[in-house]
Design goal:
7 helices, globular, single chain, mainly alpha
Length: 168
């Protein structure tokens, strides 16, 4: 299952801005995969995968048919997801106020996508992709933070180059 998350993370690092529907689908997948396991919905890997795929499909359909709704929802979910991953990496896992930080990160993510769409989409998709990849590494938290930031910067630069090439 971790391999699938890494492939989804790579897709977000490379194509997050280019294919908005893919970004929203990947965010749905990541949230479904991560939180189905954390909420103890089931121990079956197949059921967790199905939940993640269904949420990814719902995200893709929202992005195609209700783009404004998808922008806000994906920004909120991705912003909250990134916040929780970073908080876990710095040792705040299980903090009683983690849900509040999720909401704050979510609001910031949604607002960024609404007001500076292209730039925010590049940044958020790069951070989300890097987060998905880092969650499946076995390094110390310090090294994982460096990997997260390095991958996010690489994804940002790659997507920025694609955006500039399209503008020409």
């Amino acid at each position: 299952m971790g391999v699938l998350n890494i492939f989804v993370g790579i897709a977000l690092l490379i194509l997050g801005r280019k294919l908005f529907w893919l970004f929203v689908a990947c965010v749905g997948f990541a949230v479904g995969f991560t939180y189905a396991k954390q909420l103890g919905v089931t121990q079956s890997a197949l059921v967790i995968l199905v939940i993640a795929l269904v949420l990814g499909l719902i995200g893709a359909l929202l992005a195609i048919f209700l783009q404004r709704v998808a922008i806000g929802l994906a920004g909120f979910v991705a912003g909250g997801y990134i916040t929780v991953v970073v908080m876990n990496l710095i040792g705040l896992e299980g903090d009683p106020f983690l849900w509040l930080l999720y909401i704050i990160g979510g609001i910031i993510g949604a607002l960024l996508l609404f007001f500076i769409f292209d730039w925010a989409l590049i940044a958020i998709s790069s951070l989300t992709g890097a987060s998905l990849i880092v969650q499946h590494t076995e390094f110390s938290p310090e090294v994982e933070i460096v990997i997260l930031l390095g991958l996010a910067v690489l994804g940002f630069v790659f997507q920025l180059r694609i955006m500039k090439a399209e503008a020409k």
